[in-house]
C-alpha cells in the first residue's frame, strides 16, 4: 500500500478516534486527526468514556498529565474497546520518569487490548522494563541502530503490540518485519506534541488497515515526517519560527490528504 492510498482510505472512512490524552497537546491531536480526514473526540471522565469508546473506531491512551481518575477512565475505555475490537494505541509519555506512569502502562498492557505502542527509546525501554536515563518526555543520548532494533523486538515480545519507536531513525516492528524510517527533522522536537500527534495519526491509520499493521504504521510515520520536513523548509524560507512550522505541519497533512483523496477517485 502507498501512503496516498492509506490517507485516501482514512478520509473516506472518517473514523471517530477517542483520545484520552494530555491537556498540553489535546488541541494539536484534534487538529491532526481532522487534517487526515478522521473525527476526534476527547473525553476523560470515567462516567462516559466507556460509552464514547463503544461508538468509536479507534482509541488513543496517552499517559501525559496522568491522574488516578484518568487512569480509571482509560481502563474502562480499554474494556469497551476490547468488546468492539477496535485498535488501541498507547503513548507512554514519560513512562521512565515516575513509578505511577510505569505502573499505569503495565495495567493497560495487562488488559491485553493494546494494538500498538508509540514512544521514544526511553519510553519504550521503560514499558518493557529496560530502564534508561530520561529528560522530561524526550529521549536521551543517541542510541545505536542495533540497540534500537533489539529494543523494539524485546518490547514486542513482552507486549505483543506493534512497536513504533521514534527518534533519529524510527523503528516499527510487528513480530515479522522491522521497518525503519528516516523522515522528519530534529527541529520537530521544538514543537509541543509532535509525538502525541503522530500517535493519533497512527491510530487513525490502523482503523482502515489492520492486515499489515507495521507497514501501515510506517506509512503514517513517513508521511508525518515528510510533512514536518516541508513545514520547517517553508517556515525557514519565509523567515518564520516554530509556531509557524507547527501550523504548516497540520496544513501539509491536510493538503496531502486532499491530494490523496483526489488521486483515489481518478
Structure at a glance:
This protein has 266 residues and is α/β, with parallel strands linked by helices. It has ten helices and eight strands.
Overall residue-averaged pLDDT value: 92
Distance between the termini: 17 Å
The portion of residues assigned to helices is 40-55%
Integer-rounded radius of gyration = 17 Å
Shape: globular
- The number of E-state strands comes to 8
Which structural class matches the secondary elements? alpha/beta
Biggest sheet: strand arrangement: 2-1-3-4-5-6-7-8
Count of helical stretches: 10
Oligomer: single chain
The helix-strand sequence is HEHEHEHEHEHHEEEHHH
What amount of the residues lies in strands?
5-15%
Q: Main sheet, how many strands, which sense, barrel?
A: 8 strands, mixed
List segments where confidence is low: pLDDT < 50 over at least 5 consecutive residues.
none
Describe this entry's structure for a reader:
The protein is α/β, with parallel strands linked by helices and 266 residues long. It has helices spanning 3-13, 26-35, 49-54, 68-84, 99-110, 121-127, 145-159, 194-206, 213-237, 242-265, and strands at residues 16-20, 39-41, 58-62, 88-91, 116-119, 162-165, 170-173, 178-181. It is built from 10 helices and 8 strands. A hairpin with a 4-residue loop joins strand 7 and strand 8. The protein is globular and about 45 Å long. It starts with a helix and ends with a helix. The model has no long low-confidence stretch (mean pLDDT 92).
